[in-house]
Design goal:
- The chain is mainly α and about 150 residues long.
- Helix content is about 65%, strand content about 0%.
- The longest helix is centred in the last third of the chain and has 25 residues.
- The model has no long low-confidence stretch (mean pLDDT about 90).
């Protein structure tokens, strides 16, 4: 089992950025590992969401959140993917989200993590670091669901 080693001088922003990017790389690998586009859309047994829908949920949530932090507009082409998700389209969407995260984190400093996030979370005002921690948790939780779904199919 590998551990993340954080040097004393590493900024929190860098660690958060790298964790997002690593998670999105794993998401891309999971989506590419499906044998065909049809399987990405399947719902099986008690699983209520397909991998394609979970992937879109994640990337759209991340896009919206990064747009709030950076003022950079998110991807407008993803609506088509909701009706006809393909592995190639989902991978393009993941790559767009990665680029948006890279751009957003270029402008973030450790001090900005302590500021209020520009959106309430569960009817409460939270710090940017708290909201980003929630997003990281959500990304990795859903990534586990997608991995389970892929192995089940």
């Amino acid at each position: 089992m590998s551990m993340i080693v954080i040097e004393e001088k590493t900024e929190r922003v860098t660690v958060i950025r790298e964790t997002f990017l690593r998670g999105l790389d794993k998401l891309r690998l999971e989506i590419k590992s499906y044998p065909n586009d049809w399987n990405v859309c399947l719902k099986e047994g008690d699983i209520g969401s397909s991998a394609g829908n979970l992937c879109l949920y994640l990337t759209n949530t991340l896009d919206h959140s990064m747009a709030l932090l950076s003022g950079i507009e998110g991807d407008r082409e993803s609506k088509e993917l909701f009706t006809n998700p393909s592995r190639a389209g989902l991978v393009r969407k993941i790559e767009f989200t990665k680029a948006l995260i890279e751009e957003t984190f270029q402008h973030l400093k450790d001090e900005s993590l302590d500021l209020d996030f520009p959106l309430t979370f569960r009817d409460k005002q939270v710090s940017t670091s708290t909201y980003l921690l929630y997003l990281l948790t959500e990304l990795h939780y859903r990534l586990g669901q997608i991995n389970y779904h892929r192995r089940l199919i």
